[in-house]
Design a protein that fits this description.
Blueprint lengths: L1 H20 L2 E5 L5 E5 L3 E3 L2 E5 L5 E5 L5 H4 L5 E2 L8 H5 L14 H7 L10 H7 L18 H13 L2 H8 L10 H7 L8 H7 L3 H9 L15 H7 L4 H12 L14 H8 L2 H9 L8 E2 L2 E2 H8 L2 H8 L5 H6 L4 H7 L3 H10 L7 H12 L5 H9 L5 H13 L3 H10 L13 H7 L3 H9 L14 H4 L5 H12 L1
Parallel strand pairs: 3-6
Antiparallel strand pairs: 1-2, 3-4, 4-5, 7-8
Helix pairs in contact: 6-7, 6-9, 9-10, 10-12, 11-12, 11-13, 13-14, 15-16, 18-19, 18-20, 19-21, 20-21, 22-23, 23-25, 24-25, 25-27
Length: 483
């Protein structure tokens, strides 16, 4: 019995020594509760694994743990939770060995795929052989293409570590430019995640410059959608970093007119995102802009919808089929009115062949302008297209009465509408407005000179026809007008 108690005491003492020898940590839950643990805790998938102070292992769902506050010097990732390449990156880099020979693209292709026979003609490979200097660090004899090293390269790029990137590249087991042979064999680029694209996504200018200048990587590699680095940087919200990145790419032979799988160029991305400075720089570098279509509609229409006047001016100068656009379903004139952009409307109207516009189309333009809260755009439409059709003005006056808009009534009467014209029920507009209790319309008609004694078809005056919730106020207006 005594021996048994003595053994238990020894075990307890040994456990306490073990606990004291390991620094304790704290796991903090999102509800504020704290849990003490011994040694490092690990995150595996969606579970946090830890050892409590009694030496027992437990699991907690990470969804209830405040990971940011819980992480301490004891926190470690399990290998399966690390990013691709992180394990190799964080361990030894191996012996640094630079590849100094200049070899042909044909040989590189074979080595980067463990000697697989290329599916390219000798002519294609001979032409590609001119690129041998660019790829001289792509492989080394006997090593072949090493996926693990390539993932470590990508991880180094994500971290922005040019030093460790250099060490990995110079081991000769991978390339900063991707799997060359695989890119050629597939007939297009974008089969893997290229280091250049990773650096550009992070807006890491030093790393991007390092890849382009030291390793002479191809500036036009693309993702599976065919988007190059220039596409990516042109489509994000522009700032000084994006503009500098774009300039760096262009200076290093990035193709400003390269199309993705949808046929879109970097300029299309810049226009869609409203990046005016980016668009200017692309145009300076030779980007094609003539009659561009984006998402099935003219690029010009994108700028109108955005209300981006500076971008609008860039694009409209290169639009040669403007009259055809106006006559089609994607009418930029109508869109400029709907978007309430009178300045754009004026520029467009000055560039189209107005003789080709039908009377009906012009009427529709004015009707659309009159649907806006302000009459400024409508006034410009009347001026630009020299509209003098009083019947049209009278029809629009009816709409203004039934929308109870005094300002529009006054405007239309000013340009030629008759305030005593008939409404929808063939009654004087003042009578119809009084029946509907449209107080603003009654005020607008009276201020514009409508006859306050106008009779309905029943022979009753507007005063006698007043009805509705505003009848008291409308009667006061009509009595005042008849004095």
């Amino acid at each position: 019995m005594k021996a048994s108690l003595l053994a238990k005491a020894c075990l307890a003492a040994a456990f306490l020594c073990t606990v004291n020898s390991v620094q304790a940590g704290i796991i903090i839950l999102k509800n504020g509760k704290k849990i003490e643990c011994v040694g490092p805790f690990e995150v595996s998938g969606r579970q946090l694994i830890y050892t409590d102070t009694k030496g027992k292992k437990f699991q907690l769902p990470t969804s209830i743990v405040d990971m940011k506050r819980s992480k301490s010097e004891h926190y470690v990732k399990s290998d399966k939770d690390k990013e691709p390449g992180e394990v190799l990156f964080s361990t030894g880099m191996g012996v640094v060995r630079e590849e100094k020979e200049e070899i042909g693209l044909y040989e590189i292709a074979k080595r980067s795929n463990n000697g697989a026979k290329p599916e390219l003609s000798n002519t294609q490979l001979k032409n590609g052989d001119l690129l041998r200097t660019r790829y001289k660090h792509s492989t080394s004899e006997g090593t072949g293409w090493d996926k693990a090293h390539y993932e470590a390269v990508c991880y180094a790029v994500r971290l922005g570590s040019t030093h460790k990137l250099d060490r990995l590249i110079h081991q000769g087991r991978t390339s900063a430019d991707g799997n060359i042979y695989e890119s050629l064999r597939k007939g297009r680029e974008g089969m893997i995640d290229y280091p250049l694209l990773l650096a550009v996504r992070k807006k890491d200018i030093p790393m991007t410059k390092h890849l382009l200048t030291k390793y002479n990587v191809r500036p036009n590699v693309s993702d599976p959608s065919g988007n190059t680095a220039l596409h990516m940087i042109a489509g994000v919200r522009e700032d000084s970093a994006t503009v500098n990145m774009m300039t760096l790419l262009i200076d290093n032979r990035a193709d400003v007119n390269r199309q993705n799988l949808k046929g879109e160029t970097p300029l299309a991305f810049a226009i869609r995102s409203g990046n005016t400075i980016t668009a200017k720089e692309l145009l300076k570098a030779g980007a094609h802009n003539r009659d561009m279509i984006i998402d099935g509609i003219p690029a010009l229409n994108h700028t109108i919808t955005q209300g981006n006047y500076a971008m609008f001016r860039l694009i409209e100068r290169e639009t040669t089929n403007l009259t055809e656009l106006v006559l089609g379903k994607n009418d930029p004139l109508m869109l400029s009115i709907k978007s309430n952009q009178p300045e754009m409307l004026e520029i467009l109207a000055g560039k189209i062949d107005r003789v080709r516009l039908s009377k009906k189309r012009i009427e529709n333009l004015l009707a659309q302008a009159m649907s806006l809260p302000s009459t400024n755009t409508a006034e410009m439409v009347i001026y630009l297209f020299s509209i003098e059709d009083k019947d049209l003005f009278n029809r629009l006056l009816v709409d203004a009465v039934y929308t109870d808009s005094a300002d529009k009534i006054k405007f239309l009467v000013k340009v030629g509408a008759d305030p005593d014209s008939k409404g929808l029920r063939n009654e004087p507009l003042l009578v119809e407005a009084s029946r509907k209790s449209y107080v603003n319309a009654v005020r607008g008609l009276l201020d514009s000179g409508a006859d306050p004694l106008a009779k309905s078809q029943k022979g009753l005056s507007a005063l006698a026809e007043v009805d509705g919730k505003n009848r008291t106020l409308i009667k006061q207006l009509l009595r005042k007008a008849t004095r």
